[in-house]
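Example record for the data management plan.
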Amino acid sequence: MERQGCIDLRTGKGEQIDFSNPPFHISFTHNKGSYVKWYVCRVTIYGPEYFVIDAETKELINHGKTLNLQ
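Corresponding structural encoding:
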């Protein structure tokens, strides 16, 4: 998304706030007084896997999986 000129990875500023290209869905949020956070969801046959990443430090803030039980 940054290469396409849609968004600045560090500030979260740009024209586009989300992007989907299966199996990934990427979105970001920027709240005043808060860090810019990237939300990444990867969908697999076993269920979605979620990542929350700090855009400035590139540090993983949270990671989780939801398993599909059938």
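Summary line stored alongside the record: The chain has no helices and five strands.
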